[in-house]
Structure formats: structure tokens, C-alpha cells
Amino acid sequence: QVQLVESGGDLVQPGGSLRLSCAASTSLFPFYTMAWYRQAPEKKRELVASITRGGSTNYTDSVKGRFTISRVNAENTVYLQMNSLKPEDTAVYYCNIGGALTIPDMNWGQGTQVTVSS
Question: What angle (nearest 5°) sits at the alpha carbon of residue 35, between those of residues 87 and 96?
């Protein structure tokens, strides 16, 4: 199974920034659409942003203009730059392939906690 290791989460004040990283243990990484997801307490996991193998990106409406997803295929790594953070961005953030929410028994990493609070 592919191992996904997320990092970079922290406690940050509203308006602050964080950069999340996700390292994937597969040589097939460059061929996958990759995505960031998040799960807030008592809420379902949701898609935040995705990036295709060619670099096309998509974002959920609530993060457009604030978050930027990027990837470095040579490093098997995907990033999420988060600016102008809001308390409602508080969640555990996960990376995975695109469409992971629709795949039964999908393997997930441990995630990284992002807390936005003053």
C-alpha cells in the first residue's frame, strides 16, 4: 500500500499562514491526481483542493483565493499553502489521490492537525 505522511500542521492565529506537506511512497506519484482533504470535529471528511498530473488545480469554494495546492513530482510530494486562515479551517488535513472519498477501504495517513484560534 502507498504510505502517505502529512506534516506542517500547527496552532495559528486567524489571518495566519501554514504550509502543509505530504510525502507519498510510490514511484507512480507523478501519474496520480493528488488532493488535500480535511475533517473537522463531528463533520464528514471533505475535499479541499486537487491537482492533476499536469498541474491543473481545483479548490472548494470556501478556500478559493486563500489556499494553493502544488506538487513536486521528483520528490513525490504535494503541498498546500494556506493563507488568511480562518477558525473554520480548523481540521485534520489529509492528502491522498483524487477521488479517494469514493473508494471503499481507502488507505489514509495520520493527517496533520491545523488549529486556527486566537
Answer: 105
Of 24, 4, 18, 29, give the one whose Cα is nearest residue 90. Answer: 18
Q: How far apart are CA 96 and CA 112, in angstroms?
A: 13
CB 45 within 8 A of CB 94: yes
Q: For the stretch 101-111, what's the b/e string if a residue is b when 16 or more beta carbons lie within 10 angstroms of its beta carbon?
A: eeeeeeeebeb
Question: Which residues are paired to 69 by β-bridges?
Answer: 80
Running along the chain, 118 residues long, what does each successive block of 10 average in pLDDT? 92 98 91 96 97 96 98 96 98 95 91 97
